[in-house]
Amino acid sequence: MRIVLLGPPGAGKGTQARRLADRYGLAVIGTGDIFRDHVARGTPLGREAKAYMDRGEYVPDRIAVEMVLARLDQPDAREGFILDGFPRTVPQAQALERALTEAGRPLDAVLNFKISDEMAVKRLTSRLVCPNCKRVYNLSFKPPRVEGTCDVCGHELQLRNDDDEATILRRLDVYRTQTEPLVLYFWERGLLRDIDAEAPEEVVADRTIEAISDLSDLEA
Ligand code: AP5
Predict the structure, then answer these.
(1) Which residue in 2, 13, 36, 207 is the catalytic one?
(2) Which of 3, 22, 215, 220 is least enclosed by beta carbons within 10 angstroms?
């Protein structure tokens, strides 16, 4: 299965990507996580990406495209993948389409997670992340068992640099102008499947599984 998760900041793409990966054994390619990893390691790519990310803006297309196409060539991704946060612009979508068509591995579906701006702000201002194992928590909706500590690996949880309210609003604005055109782009290709993502995590998970239940190579 080859799917893309689309949706504004806070829609739950990362949360649902992890659940799908656990259920179906697929590789998750989360561009935000890959960029944050480069930033944490201080690589040249990380240094270039950081300024854009801290402002809530997108990293230039050439960087994102090169990074993702290289990742898609790795053996685990050849068996299928979940793209979380890519493509985000029309040029990124066109580059992905070209590469997958050439490889004879077209996309099966694009899941479009829909939430209101109010809910996005509410979720993101209360998000905590584990910088070690990348698990995501939420002070309002999914608190860790021990305050400030990852349930899985015990590492100290952190707020993300771009989760202050002003930067969240900027990210929502950037999403609307640069990424929302992809809804039409993928709809025209018959790939788009809308998911109401405003409900609790488990309900959204059921809706997500239902939305892809017709894809023939899926086995839980
Ligand atoms: P990225 O990390 O991808 O950020 P984003 O798209 O803004 O999305 P988020 O990770 O904030 O939200 P999410 O939808 O994954 O929600 P989550 O599951 O965490 O990208 C960061 C930056 O990297 C970008 O701004 C850009 O600079 C750069 N970048 C990345 N990709 C790029 C690209 N292709 N091109 C250029 N630049 C790129 O959930 C959020 C919170 O809500 C959590 O606390 C979670 O526990 C909670 N939650 C989730 N679902 C529910 C639910 N159903 N009910 C209640 N709470 C929920």
Answers:
(1) 13
(2) 220
Active site residue 145: no
**138: nearest Cα among 122, 152, 154:** 122
85 lines ligand 1 (CB under 6 A): yes
β-pair partners for 6: 112
pLDDT class of 220 with cuts at 50, 70, 90: low
Q: pLDDT digits over 169-205, tens only?
A: 999 999 999 999 999 999 999 999 999 999 999 999 9
- Find the domain containing 119 and state its range: 2-24+79-125+164-210
Q: How many domains does the chain have?
A: 1
Atom of ligand 1 nearest to the CA of 137: 46
Q: Is 105 helix (H, G, I), strand (E, B) or coil?
A: coil
Question: What is the enclosing helix (H) or strand (E) of 129?
Answer: strand 127-129
How many angstroms separate the alpha carbon of residue 8 from the centre of ligand 1?
A: 7
CATH number, position 14: 3.40.50.300
Catalytic residue check, 160:
yes
pTM of the entire structure?
A: 0.95
Asked if residue 158 is part of any domain, the answer here is no
**Is-cis flag, bond preceding 87, omega within 30?**
yes
Task: Report the amino acid identity of residue 67.
Answer: M
| Any atom of ligand 1 within 6 Å of the Cβ of 31 | yes
Question: Residue 72 to residues 75, 85, 98, 168: CA-CA distances in angstroms?
Answer: 8, 14, 13, 29
Across all residues in the chain, what is the average pLDDT? Answer: 95
